[in-house]
Amino acid sequence: MPAALRAWRRGTRGIKQVLLDQTLVSGIGNIYADEAMWRARVHPERPARATSVATASALLEATQAVMRDALAQGGTSLDALYVNVNGQSGYFARGLEAYGRGGEPCGRCGNLLSRATIGGRASHWCGRCQRRYSPRRAAVR
Ligand SMILES: [Zn+2]
Questions:
Q1: Which of 24, 34, 56, 110 could form a disulfide with 98 if both were Cys (CB 3.0 to 4.6 A apart)?
Q2: DSSP codes joined into one string, 97-117
Q3: Which residue range forms the structural domain that includes residue 132?
């Protein structure tokens, strides 16, 4: 297992907090994290230590895809760009699937998106696409 994955699985934190930990993965902002977790269908409070290599890889790939899309739309920093458009329908804000969309329908399944503060950061996710981790369901898999 790569060192980065071992570091991810250390401790008892939720995966979003690990993702935002600049010492492990640099340059991932709060918006990137919410968007990547929505794309990879990972619940923000999934315990990092219960994250499979496949899930962690999918999440890293989703994070890179979110960054590529942001760059393709002319942003060098997704967070800065979002602040610039100030919540209005700026060009990048229109591309967001999860961040800032609490209470709005999920673009994939139509379920209303959830919003909560996790680890001091605003977090947005779909409760249907991004299931809360359950050891029992993991054992069945
Ligand atoms: Zn959904």
A1: 34
A2: SSTT-TTSBPTTT-PBPEEEE
A3: 3-140
